[in-house]
């Protein structure tokens, strides 16, 4: 087993890992990124590559464990941002303290800081990558600087959905997107080639977590990327300090170890919790950071679903074809006194890949989503079964809270109202199967001030370990009701700045 030494070992190369690795490396520290996946081939789609990601075990209705769980968004260099839709909301102010809206049996949903502390990191990232948005159009948008890029034009589907929302008295607005509406910082504008969700962006207009790894201004040799390198165990040098990370080459299945002054977990909420549990050793018999049994608990996936319908082509306005996956959104039912608990969620256009009129019919689809309750019983655990690498398989214990079922039903009806107003026929509901994991992963290494109820502190540092941090969505004590990527990135930049001061 080989061994070398770096200043920081970052586990994962996606939304959070790329931010942390770049920020630390640009200050001259030596960084190694361990990425379990490989670089995606040109033209890749989620459908073409997801079979190779591996699965997790989840409970069937009868209670038996079945391999239907999805413990990855995307297992590849760049993580989920390689194939995401570019939707770039900021968490709402209420998302940082939702105590008035969660059930009595939920874990504490309060973040250890408020939106104001995270705002400067949102602003800095927006300047770096560009966000196409219309500032002030979202009635629930938290305070922000003026937008840098104009919003994307509504697609044909988006126009019909927005018009219907307006007739209902709602306030539709352009979906904020990390997709260039005009050329920005050397990157092309979107050419409206089609819905980009679950596909690589061929034009380079969409923000990509891989771009920090090609930054030419980084100090020479400061950043090393090891693809196909699965972190399998964290070794402690003392009861309160990490000394090394053991990793496995997924191709030749040879193990190696790297010594590090600091380790940052950025694999995703499920993978980071599993790695801590997998790292049980004499000084941490239940897994690292798990002395109070909180590692893996409070896992959240965001409750969600889709409503679809068709309208007749003879009612369609003239409109240019194509456009991003989502161009219009509505937050009218996010804070909603009529919603169960007073907190509803987000609705937005989620156009199918095939957008053209077919047989004089056009399909409309709306995605609705909301934050789920952080429950102690919803947890990441390890099975005695082994995967193809010889590692314990992950178990996702998750049940939707009754309050969340009611909120999901409420949002489904609001989405149906929207499509009915748009003139859609044969309106149908499609489950997102969020309960199996995949896209929106939060919690499991939740942040808080009380070590008995959380895993990391306000800076993402594991409570009882001086040099081990969690920077991915596992940090979230409450998931918020919007797409999480932009918040994960902003918080990762905040954590990275803290790590730099600790290393100096």
TrEMBL record:
Coiled coil: none annotated. It comes from the Bacteria. Its cofactor is FAD. Pfam families: DAO, GMC_oxred_C, GMC_oxred_N. The keyword Metal-binding does not apply. One of its GO terms (molecular function) is flavin adenine dinucleotide binding. InterPro entries: 4Fe4S_Fe-S-bd, FAD-dep_OxRdtase, FAD/NAD-bd_sf, GMC_OxRdtase_N, GMC_OxRtase_C, P2Ox-like. Keywords: FAD, Flavoprotein, Oxidoreductase. Residues 181-211 form the 4Fe-4S ferredoxin-type domain. Belongs to the GMC oxidoreductase family. This is Paromamine 6'-oxidase/6'''-hydroxyneomycin C oxidase/2'-deamino-2'-hydroxyparomamine 6'-oxidase. It comes from Bradyrhizobium stylosanthis. The lineage of its organism: Bacteria, Pseudomonadati, Pseudomonadota, Alphaproteobacteria, Hyphomicrobiales.
């Amino acid at each position: 087993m080989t061994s070398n030494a770096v200043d920081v070992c970052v586990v994962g190369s996606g939304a959070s890992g790329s931010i942390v690795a770049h920020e630390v490396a640009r200050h001259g520290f030596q960084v190694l990124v361990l990425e379990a996946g490989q670089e995606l081939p040109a033209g890749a789609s989620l459908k073409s590559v997801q079979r190779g990601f591996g699965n997790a075990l989840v409970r069937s209705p009868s209670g038996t464990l079945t391999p239907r769980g999805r413990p990855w968004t995307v297992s590849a260099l760049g993580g989920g941002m390689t194939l995401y839709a570019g939707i770039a909301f900021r968490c709402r102010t209420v998302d940082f303290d939702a105590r008035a809206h969660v059930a009595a049996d939920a874990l504490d949903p309060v973040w250890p800081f408020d939106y104001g502390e995270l705002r400067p990191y949102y602003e800095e990232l927006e300047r770096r990558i560009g966000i196409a948005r219309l500032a002030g159009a979202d009635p629930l948008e938290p305070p922000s600087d003026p937008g840098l890029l104009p919003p994307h034009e509504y697609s044909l589907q988006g126009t019909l959905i927005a018009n219907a929302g307006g007739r209902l008295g709602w306030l539709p607005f352009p979906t904020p997107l990390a997709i260039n509406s005009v050329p920005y910082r050397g990157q092309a504008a979107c050419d409206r080639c089609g819905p980009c969700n679950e596909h690589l962006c061929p034009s380079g207009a969409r923000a990509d977590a891989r771009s920090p790894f090609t930054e030419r201004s980084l100090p020479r040799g400061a950043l090393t990327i090891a693809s196909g390198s699965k972190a399998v165990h964290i070794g402690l040098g003392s009861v309160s300090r990490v000394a090394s990370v053991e990793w496995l080459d997924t191709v030749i299945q040879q193990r190696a170890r790297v010594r590090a002054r600091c380790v940052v977990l950025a694999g995703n909420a499920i993978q980071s919790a599993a790695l801590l549990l997998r790292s049980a050793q004499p000084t941490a018999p239940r897994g690292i950071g798990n002395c109070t049994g909180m590692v893996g608990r409070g896992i959240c996936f965001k409750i969600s679903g889709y409503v679809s319908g068709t309208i007749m082509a003879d009612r369609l306005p003239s409109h240019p074809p194509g456009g991003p996956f989502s161009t219009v959104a509505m937050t009218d039912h996010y804070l909603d006194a009529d919603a169960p608990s007073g907190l509803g969620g987000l609705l937005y256009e989620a156009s199918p890949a095939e957008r053209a009129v077919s047989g004089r019919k056009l399909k409309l689809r709306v995605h609705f989503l909301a934050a789920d309750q952080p429950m102690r019983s919803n947890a990441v655990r390890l099975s005695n079964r082994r995967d193809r690498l010889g590692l314990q398989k992950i178990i996702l214990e998750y049940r939707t809270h009754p309050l969340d079922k009611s909120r999901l039903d409420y949002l489904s009806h609001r989405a149906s109202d929207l499509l009915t107003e748009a003139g859609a026929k044969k309106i149908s509901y499609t489950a997102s199967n969020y309960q199996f994991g995949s896209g929106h992963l939060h919690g499991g290494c939740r942040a808080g001030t009380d070590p008995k109820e959380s895993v990391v502190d306000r800076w993402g540092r594991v409570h009882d370990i001086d040099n081990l941090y969690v920077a991915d969505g596992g940090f979230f004590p409450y998931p918020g009701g919007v797409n999480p990527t932009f918040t994960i990135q902003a918080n990762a930049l905040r954590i990275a700045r803290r790590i730099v001061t600790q290393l100096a």
